[in-house]
Amino acid sequence: MILNKTDLIAPERLTALRREIEAQLRPGVKLVSARQGRVPPQVALGLAAAAEDDLASRPSVHELEAGHSHDDFESFVVTAGSVEDGNEFLVRLRSAIGLHDVLRVKGFVDLPRRDRRQVVQAVGDRLQQHFDRPWYPGEKRETRLVVIGRKGLDRAAIISALGALGG
Q: Are 3 and 31 a contacting pair, CB within 8 Å?
């Protein structure tokens, strides 16, 4: 981890700040100080750090999150045919995410006048989309989204809001 702008902090405060940050880091993570954003590229990129050598001993994010259980979450697939108005669909999707406390959405949208799939990803209300690859010959063109949220999602309401059929 890089602690930048250390030149703007009094030395005694920097020492205390380093201790605070290091206490929260995963074992083995190094805290590197940088002044004026200057960090050697090999340090910033982790070159020759052999970080992959101890992957088996590293806990996963899920193991580090206290009280986290997959039973707390649910997911389902929403499928539909072509979407005539992609912009309007994204507005409906953003609205459904906000109204129903959806945590994550990922998938793709079939826009009939486009020869490429529209990839859609959302984390909370941050929604991104781009066109990736062409539809393959013989591939079923459809809109298909995976919706992820906390247990108790109102699937019917989300599907209705998107104007789609649940899969």
A: yes
User: Where, residue-wise, is CATH 3.30.1220.10 in the chain?
Assistant: 70-166
Residue count of the chain, please give it: 167
Q: Spell out where 9-124 has E strands.
A: 32-33, 73-80, 102-109, 116-123
2-47 pLDDT, tens digit each: 888 888 889 899 999 999 998 888 776 778 888 877 777 766 666 6
> Amino acid identity of 107?
G
What three-state secondary structure class fits 37? Answer: coil
Q: Which CATH architecture has domain 70-166?
A: 2-Layer Sandwich (3.30)
Which residue's entry shows tokens 């949220």? 149
For the whole model, what pTM was predicted? 0.58
Helices and strands, counts by H and E, the chain: 5, 8
Helix (H, G, I), strand (E, B) or coil at 25: coil
d(CA 82, CA 88): 13
Model confidence pLDDT, tens digit, residues 116-151: 999 999 988 789 999 999 999 999 999 999 999 988
